C-alpha cells in the first residue's frame, strides 16, 4: 500500500491528491498547508519510491508508479463478478465494508482498471436484481464441483446433455462453459439463455415454482440466519428480502409463522395467499381458545 512506501502523513496525502487528476500547485500548497520548498522535497521523495509524476502548466498528476497492479480484462470482469455476488449475499453494512477494503487495494491499481471494474460491476448488479439469474449461477457452481452431467434447456427450446466446467466473463454478460459430452467439445452458453437445468438421474433443481420470496422485519432482520437453501436478495433499513428455494412449503410456512408479524411472503402470489390464510386461521383458533377459557372461568 502507499502508506508502506512513504515517510510522512502529508506525503501520503499528497500522493492520494495527485492520484486521479491534475491538481494546480496553489491548490496543493493550500490543501497541505506547506511552502514551495517543502512541496519540492515531497515530490522528490515520491519519485524516489517509484511514482511517475507529470507536470502541465503548474499542475501535477501521478501517471503511474512502480508498485502499480495492472489487471487483465478477465481479472477486472471476475473481480466485478465477485463484488456483485457479495452485494447479493452480504448485508448492506458488510458489503460496504468489503467495498472500502477494495477501495484501499485499488490504490495499487491503475485508474483505468478501477473504472473498468466499476463499469462491469454495475452491469452485473443489474443482472443480479433478477433472482433467477443469481440462482442459476449458484446451481451451476454446485454442479461444477460435483462434475455432474446436466440436461440444459435453452430459451429457444434446444435440449443439450452437458457437463458444466467453468464461467467466462465478458463486458456485458457471464457465460457458462460446458463440455458437450456427445461431440466431445467445449461450448459457451450465456447464463441468460439457460431456461432449465436438470441433473440427470436426479431431481431437477432449477424450477421457479419451487421458489418462495419473503421479507423479514424489525429486530429479526439483524439476527436472521440464512438456511442452506436460502440467499439474501436485498437489504434495507427496516427489512431484508430472502429467497428460499426447494424447501418443503409446509415446513417453510410453519417456520415463518413462528416469526409472527416479522415475516411476510411476497412471491409467488399463491404462496402469499396461502400464508395469509394460515395466519388468519391461527388467529381464529387463538380467539376460539380465548373464548373457551373465558367460558370456563365463568
Protein described:
By secondary structure, the protein is α+β, with helices and mostly antiparallel strands. The chain has helices at about 10-15, 25-30, 35-50, 75-90, 90-105, 110-130, 130-145, 220-225, 250-255, 270-295, and strands spanning about 25, 50-55, 60-65, 150-155, 160-170, 175-180, 185-190, 195-200, 210-215, 230-235, 240-245, 265. The strands form three sheets. Strands 7-6-5-4-8 form a five-stranded antiparallel β-sheet. Strands 10-11-9-12 form a four-stranded antiparallel β-sheet. Strand 10 and strand 11 (about 240-245) form a beta hairpin. Helix 1 packs across helix 3 (about 35-50) and helix 4 (about 75-90) packs across helix 6 (about 110-130). The N and C termini lie far apart (about 80 Å).
